[in-house]
Design a protein that fits this description.
mainly alpha, two-stranded antiparallel sheet, 21 helices, globular
């Protein structure tokens, strides 16, 4: 019963704010959202205690889907094991903190009720994805969070950059969604079921596991699919915190864990390369929110690499995913307050040394967790991943390099924010530290520090068989990264900045090789077919369009199509 209430309360909040916002008003919408989220948080905590501490998994049948294929009738059911219960608690806690935060951050926005509805729906679909007992219901939640992310990233529809970023995230995610859908069809063909308990990827061809990996790579922003993640920063800061901390980007990692994609060298290689590439992109980025976004990309690479490198990789990846959610949400929310205070995103124009103690403390705790400072939650979860990667030498070296980069750009971020005063102490506006802001950071601080003692309900590895210097190597490399970040703020080479600051040219490659060709072909098809062929009644014609890369022939074809369209219309 608690499991049903958990999801239904959040969707009730979304429904009331979305359809009756003009009646209940902004204050009424805020009250409803806060009450629903707090009740859901209490419910998730009770459920986590029953499932993870008392060892009582929950199976909740809700009925059947509306379709049937021969003898295959997929069940509409939820299942909470230790994995789902831990993820549910994390998602609800971070979402509750984000809802508290937006009460102050979005105050005065004319469509705040609609924004709350989108946020609540986003959280609800993520909970459906987490609690699903089969791949079909997971795909419902998967598509739901994709649509909600599109609406939230493009929330400021009057800004062209926000609209383009929303379209970009939707297109990239839909490509990976297609791979996941194909993998589901193959899994059903080979196993005859889509229930998690009946699905094993070790009994199906390699192409199926490859399709699952490609589907997860899009949502979790792995290398080659990472191009949408930084552009998603065009949305409001609460959206960035929710997407990058506990919802959208974690869906791919959660899928790999659910389908047991461990001991897969391709998964490990993709994760390690993503961790290193995200660190390089974050090191040379100058936009505050983009630095934190590339940090998310790098940390997701750690998780995926850990899943692929050992049989227990799922446990350690989920431990890092859950500890990462708290400090990454803290960093984003503190960054939003700093950006609003300075009226600027560029790290080269900040002067935040006079920021409030609340913002400074939140930023410092988040950064220390990110670089893996000892006795913090981020240290324990990251050390578990690096210790397990030791038995694969190449993987261990790449992840240690990523650890060095993480410490470097995190230190560089703190130095540019608080030690170098670029704007001579001027600031534009400052949010008052309202009760909602205090409640938000208190919740996230509790989440981060409680993980030191409770972990994620998964065993974390402190392998005593490793040599002493190997166990302490990650911290030593982090210290080297701190030193490099402190010294290298003014010493970075411009060629490196230009190359990795442009995300290694991935956007340019995609634009020239894919986007421009599709747009040009669409233009020709529009002029020849939509405006030409379809307007000729009772005539049949066959038009063959040969797409050539030669500029002169392409421009000639362009002129011919315009002449044909003008004459036919």
């Amino acid at each position: 019963m608690l499991s049903e209430q958990l999801i239904s309360l959040i969707f009730i909040s979304s429904f009331l704010n979305g359809f009756f916002g003009h009646i209940i008003g902004v204050r009424g919408g805020l009250v409803i959202a806060v009450i629903c989220l707090c009740t859901s948080l209490l419910t998730a905590a009770i459920q986590w205690f029953e499932v993870c501490i008392n060892g009582c998994p929950v199976y909740l049948p809700l009925g059947e889907f509306f379709f049937r294929v021969q003898d295959f009738i997929p069940a509409l059911s939820l299942y909470y094991d230790s994995l789902a219960a831990s993820m549910t608690l994390t998602v609800v806690l971070v979402s509750c903190a984000v809802h508290f935060y937006q009460c102050t951050y979005m105050a005065g926005d004319s469509n705040q009720n609609l924004f709350i509805a989108y946020l609540s729906a986003f959280t609800g679909f993520m909970l459906v994805l987490v609690a699903a007992n089969n791949l079909i219901l997971l795909f419902v939640g998967w598509e739901g969070i994709g649509v909600c992310s599109y609406l939230l990233i493009g929330y400021y529809a009057s800004r062209i950059s926000a609209t383009k970023s929303a379209n970009k995230s939707l297109i990239v995610n839909k490509i990976s969604d297609g791979f996941l859908l194909c993998s589901m069809l193959y899994i059903w063909h080979y196993t005859g079921s889509l229930q998690y308990s009946c699905v094993t990827l070790f009994c199906v061809p390699v192409i199926v596991s490859s399709l699952v990996l490609l589907g997860a790579m899009g949502k979790s922003s792995q290398l080659f699919f990472h191009v949408w993640l930084a552009d998603a920063m065009e949305g409001p800061t609460p959206v960035s915190a929710l997407i990058h901390a506990a919802t959208l980007v974690t869906a791919g990692v959660y899928l790999l864990c659910k389908l047991n994609m461990h001991c897969n060298e391709y998964v490990a290689a993709i994760g390690a390369l993503t961790a290193a590439a995200g660190g390089l992109f974050g090191f040379v980025a100058n936009d505050l929110k983009r630095v934190i976004a590339f940090s998310t990309c790098s940390q997701l690479g750690y998780m995926v690499a850990c899943i692929g490198c050992c049989s227990d990789g799922m446990d350690y990846a989920l431990a890092h995913l859950i500890s990462h959610a708290g400090f990454k949400a803290t960093l984003f929310l503190a960054a939003g307050l700093l950006i609003s205070r300075e009226n600027n995103n560029s790290l080269n124009k900040f002067g935040a040394r006079n920021a409030s103690k609340t913002i400074t403390l939140a930023t410092l705790i988040g950064c220390l967790n990110l670089l893996g400072f000892p006795e913090l939650a981020g240290f324990y979860s990251k050390e578990s991943i690096l210790n397990n990667a030791f038995f694969s030498k190449a993987l261990h070296i790449v992840l240690l390099f990523a650890t060095f980069l993480t410490a470097t750009y995190t230190t560089k971020l703190l130095v540019q924010l608080y030690l170098i005063n670029y704007n001579n102490g001027r600031f534009y506006k400052n949010f008052k530290n309202s009760n909602f802001i205090y409640a938000c950071f208190t919740l996230l601080l509790f989440e981060m520090e409680s993980r030191i003692y409770t972990g994620s309900s998964f065993g974390q590895n402190f392998n005593t068989n490793l040599p002493f210097y190997i166990k302490n190597l990650p911290f030593g490399i982090a210290l080297a990264g701190i030193l490099s970040g402190s010294i290298g703020v003014q010493l970075m080479q411009y060629s490196l900045i230009r190359f990795f600051g442009n995300k290694a040219g991935f956007d340019l490659i995609y634009a020239r090789s894919c986007t421009n060709i599709v747009l040009y072909n669409s233009f020709i098809a529009y002029n020849l077919f939509d405006r030409g062929f379809l307007k000729l009644p009772d005539k049949c014609c066959f038009i063959v369009v040969i797409f050539l890369r030669n500029v002169k022939l392409r421009s000639m074809l362009h002129r011919i199509s315009l002449m044909l369209s003008d004459s036919l219309v």
